[in-house]
Every structure is written in structure tokens, then in C-alpha cells.
Amino acid sequence: QLPSVYVPFYEEYLSYLIFKINSKAEAEIKKLLKDLDSNLAERRGKALRYRNEIKSSKVKHADKVPGQVYWRYNILVEPRIKNDLIGELRKNNVLVSAWFPPIVDLFVDNINAESFSGSKAFSERVLNLFVDQRVSIADVSKTIDVINNF
Fold first, then answer.
1. Do the beta carbons of residue 104 and residue 111 sit within 8 Å?
2. What pLDDT, in 10s, does the model give residues 42-70?
């Protein structure tokens, strides 16, 4: 929570960014773009299973957005059970992450945290379930079972 540290860090970081890609990176991107439609369909399918099959009363699904493609599928749980559920999922080798706290404190001095109460409340409740190619259909089923039986 030190803007005096983070702002210069990001300014320094700019010199390490690639603004023009090389031919090797370009070839890799073109290869991945060929699989984009199937990748998006796979992500949508996994997210739809989470939405339709996670029935636990302890879980609230984030609102559906038409056309959304998920990077992670978000579920909301009460803060008092969040860490226990994360522990249970990880004990079962389920990929799960939690949202990070609001980061405005890192970049702006003298901010009133109450101005970002919605962001704070969201961060205290959200869990991210993975939908990318590292997660198999069997993993999705296991994730659903662990959550529904928690």
C-alpha cells in the first residue's frame, strides 16, 4: 500500500514491454488464432456447466452477460465460508483463485476506501473457477461436486 513504490515500479516496467512483436511470436499468435473458435466454445461450455450444475444454496452466480466469453467463471460466496471452500477445492486438486483486493490504494494517496465499497465487497466474496484448456471436463465435474457437497 505504497503508491510511492508502485507508481515508479510501473513506470520502470514500461521499458520491458514489447510494443512490436517478432516473427516467432507472430507465428505463435497465428497458430493460436486458428483454434480460437473452438477455444471460445470450450470455455463457454465449461462456464455453462458451472452455471447450470452448481446448485448449492451457498453460491450465487454472477449475472450472465450475453456473448460473454469467460476468462474465469465467477461465483460469489459469503466471506465467512470463502477460505474454507477454497481450501476444500484445493484439497481436491481443483484450480481456483480469489479476486484481489481493490488496488486503488496502490496508486493513489489519501483515497477514501468507502468510495470503493462495492469493489471491496465483491473481492471478499468472489471465487474464480477456471475454464481454460488446463481444466478437463472431468475437472469441471469434480469442481461442481465439491462445491455442491460443501
1. yes
2. 999 999 999 999 999 999 998 889 888 88
